Amino acid sequence: MDVRTVADYMNSGETPDILFWVGCAGSFDQRSQKITRAFATILNKVGLKYAILGKEEACTGDPARRAGNEFLFQMMAYNNIQVLNGYGIKKIVTTCPHCFNTLKNEYPALGGNYEVIHHTTLLQELINEGKIRLKEGGAFKGKRITFHDSCYLGRANDIYEAPRKVLEALDGELVEMKRCRSNGLCCGAGGAQMFKEDEPGKTRINTDRANEALATGAKVIASSCPFCNTMMTDGVKLDEKEEEVKVYDIAEMIAESMN
Amino acid sequence: MHIIQEAAFIVVLAVAIILFSKKSRQIYRNIMLGRPEPLNDQPEKRWRNLLLLAFGQKKMFRNPLVAVLHFVVYAGFIIINAEVLEILLDGILGKHRLFAEPLGGFYNVLINSFEILAAGVLLACAIFLVRRNLVKVKRLNHSDLTGWPRSDANYILITEIVLMTLFLTMNAADTLLQQRGYSHYGEAVTGNFRVSALFQPMLAGLSSGTLEGIERTCWWLHILGILAFLNYLPYSKHLHIVLAFPNAWFARLKPMGEMHNMPEVQKEVLYMMQPELAPPADQAPAEMPRFGARDVMDLSWKNVLDAYSCTECGRCTAACPANITGKKLSPRKIMMDTRDRAEAIGENINANGEYKDDGKSLVHDYITEEELRACTTCNACVQECPVSISPLDIILQLRRHLVMEASSAPAEWNGMFSNIENNFAPWKFSPDDRDRWISEN
Ligand code: SF4
Ligand code: SF4
């Protein structure tokens, strides 16, 4: 796969139009890597001049900050901002709502000012501009799809429509869960919960949410966050429904259906 | 006789006002125990929030039926209080229906609308009592409310019903006496009012003397009830009828996902990375700043105002993924605990002149680590709160204290921290593999 780093661009005297911030999950987690590759495939097909930081990218510090470790967060932010400002980065797209939130809302106070968009917003723009052309009768045509809102995209940043608009373009049958949009139930991963066991309780949050998604009768659960994706996948597995019901990131669904 | 009534009234009124303002000043002082945080920027947005969220109760309309009922009680409460103005002046001046003559026909329009509202309030409060005690709506029967908070809610509803009944009975007796031309009641002739007229048949058989007794008793109980209510407010969740307004005005305007920056930590890190920028050691500030919040004084004043504004409605807890799945965390309890702790500190100051360490703190003694650990920072509680409260903001400040000052974190989190520090990712992967996804498939 052909993906260039910002350094590659610089070496050939060019500048990329947009930086693709891959994020830790997208870089290392096997399931999330597929999302990353799907999104890069789309960008390649569309012919966008994008770049990644490659080995120069580091955790934004989001899980450390939410767990309470402000020192570690500030250290990560300091280094990342040095790198980003050093390259004169202006615009960033990311497939992770947590990276999106941190880069967009929290780095400005520390001297990192960029135009940051989430990949679902970019996908919507590319579809509107006709740059993404979808197959007639793609794999999701007529399929029942439900969308799980990510807290860090939805409530945290008020983005509810873009992912739904992209899904509508796939010609599926979009059904909503009872708790959706600003009422959406968390998948259970945020606030650094991803990195520890649940506190004692009756059930796990992701089982509760997966059950709600399964109750819609959807064959596809669409997500817009690698962490939600993992949580929902695990929840569906626990119900032994992984054969009939698939959890996909919106980028994967578009990559699959593109001409 | 008149003079004694007037004098008694003035004394009661004065005592009520003095007690209320004393408690109000204490609450103001308790709120100001919090750290300063400037929240006065962007007045256009703040006006909007005040009008939409406080006056318009916008968030309540996420459940329209409850919203309408609550709106009736709220509008009734505010509007009927215009009548209290007349009652107060009557009481002080020893007059009866002071406004009837100057306002003429408009007076009847007013009292008629008050009566209709009063009937609405009565009905709504009755429905609320049923919802709480018979239908047992889940969020209103949660373990957070065991004991005093549950009685508090019921006391208020019952008091409202009693006050409205007194008001209507008083008017019924009064208008009957007018018809009979009895004593001074015959002077201010207003004619019947819409709702209280329906009560008249029940009283019609009584003698005029008894009716006068009923009218006076209702008048006194009504105004005493209102003054008692006023002094009960500061101890109750019903303080929100006052504080919901400033709380909407001072609501944070940033995106919900944005955590507060900590400039003190930012500076420390900057000096570590670029030691040449650090001030010489002898000029460094002597006092170490607090990293996170351990007690109420470490929170922002807005957090404490939040705590005093909380209606204990539990919309936050009903939406909290942690609470829904049986974890100990309940955002409503976070707010109730913060208020309880602020009150305890206030009592401490009242007794000692200044705060004397009582060996307690908000973390541990009121809110446990287990509760704090369960939060997913999903913002559902913030989204749901009808009075612009952020329980999450308090949770995150307490977490900062646990990790940075008390060095208390679950082992998995410590592992995650060291992975981020050493491998630049929360998992133990080699930073060199960060772009391996390109070649793998
Ligand atoms: S932010 Fe935390 S406390 Fe608030 S609803 Fe979500 S999990 Fe519960
Ligand atoms: S914090 Fe808000 S939503 Fe939660 S109980 Fe208090 S008033 Fe209700």
TrEMBL record, chain A:
One of its GO terms (molecular function) is oxidoreductase activity. The keyword Iron-sulfur applies. The keyword Iron-sulfur applies. Keywords: 4Fe-4S, Iron, Iron-sulfur, Metal-binding, Oxidoreductase. Pfam families: CCG. Residues 19-104, 145-232 form the Cysteine-rich domain. InterPro entries: Cys_rich_dom, HdrC_iron-sulfur_subunit. One of its GO terms (cellular component) is plasma membrane. It comes from the Bacteria. PANTHER family: IRON-SULFUR-BINDING OXIDOREDUCTASE FADF-RELATED (PTHR43255:SF1), IRON-SULFUR-BINDING OXIDOREDUCTASE FADF-RELATED-RELATED (PTHR43255). This is Fe-S oxidoreductase. It comes from Filimonas zeae.
TrEMBL record, chain B:
The chain crosses the membrane at residues 6-22, 65-89, 109-130, 155-173. One of its GO terms (cellular component) is plasma membrane. Pfam families: Fer4_9 (PF13187). Residues 301-332, 364-395 form the 4Fe-4S ferredoxin-type domain. Keywords: 4Fe-4S, Iron, Iron-sulfur, Membrane, Metal-binding, Oxidoreductase, Transmembrane, Transmembrane helix. One of its GO terms (molecular function) is 4 iron, 4 sulfur cluster binding. InterPro entries: 4Fe4S_Fe-S-bd, 4Fe4S_Fe_S_CS, HdrC_iron-sulfur_subunit, Helical_ferredxn, NarG-like_sf. It comes from the Bacteria. This is Fe-S oxidoreductase. It comes from Filimonas zeae.
